[in-house]
TrEMBL record:
A Pfam family matched in the record: ECF_trnsprt
Organism whose genome encodes this protein: Neobacillus mesonae
UniProt key word Transmembrane helix: yes
Signal peptide span: none
Keyword Kinase: no
Superkingdom of this protein's organism: Bacteria
Keywords associated with the record: Membrane, Transmembrane, Transmembrane helix
MF term (GO), any: transmembrane transporter activity
Coiled-coil intervals, chain numbering: none
InterPro entries: ECF_trnsprt_substrate-spec (IPR024529)
Residue intervals passing through the bilayer: 40-65, 77-96, 102-120
Protein name in the entry: ECF transporter S component
Length: 200
């Protein structure tokens, strides 16, 4: 990412190609999580990686397009595109600020991104699912908290934190690992000023 223009709406060819690749990575992550029956989603690895390479806007676009595609088979995904956009923006900004530059910092960034996703998703969960996330472990916590406090908001918030923070922590660590494994000449493609498309 060209750090002098983090919010630029002008994209290099490499950034434009990155978006569909990121969507594909998101799909693979979600598929693997489903096959292994993990209590996590792992469907934003590509979003975070795109944000690290191309900046927050590229990350946000990857996240939004990802949910739009899912939305054709699961319409509720359209709504959660808001969360995916926020994840892409947060990841891009944190990377720009140097918060995803070591494994230790990546852990902190993962927790922050998980909390960002929690704040946005919790009201959506309450509006569409009565506060639940659809995750077996998280919803068990939801039921326990609701039974003991009768607070849907608290139960939903803790449900989302219980699932989203570990999920985004693992997502950021995997994304950082992929980033570290990329050839330097590939990373360098996103540090040039050869912009060929614009949304200005």
């Amino acid at each position: 990412m060209n750090k002098q223009s983090m919010w630029s709406l002008r994209f290099s060819t490499a950034s434009l190609v990155l978006i569909p690749v990121a969507v594909g990575i998101n799909y693979i992550g979600k598929f693997v999580a489903g096959i292994l029956k993990l209590p996590l989603w792992l469907d934003s690895i590509g979003t975070v990686l795109a944000a690290m390479l191309g900046g927050p806007i590229v990350g946000a676009l990857a996240g939004a397009i990802n949910n739009i595609i899912y939305g054709f088979t699961d319409p509720i995904s359209f709504v959660y595109a808001i969360t995916s956009v926020a994840i892409g923006v947060a990841a891009g900004v944190l990377f720009y600020k140097g918060y995803i530059s070591s494994w230790g910092k990546a852990v902190v960034a993962g927790i922050i991104i998980g909390l960002v996703a929690t704040v946005i998703s919790t009201p959506l969960n309450i509006g569409f699912w009565g506060g639940q996330t659809g995750n077996v472990w998280g919803d068990a916590l939801f039921a326990f908290v609701l039974a003991n406090t009768e607070s849907t908001w608290l139960a939903s918030l803790l449900d989302e934190i219980f699932v989203d923070v570990p999920d985004k922590l693992l997502v950021v660590l995997v994304s950082y690992g992929i980033f570290q494994g990329l050839p330097r000449n590939v990373v360098q493609l996103y540090n040039n000023n050869d912009k060929v498309e614009t949304l200005d």
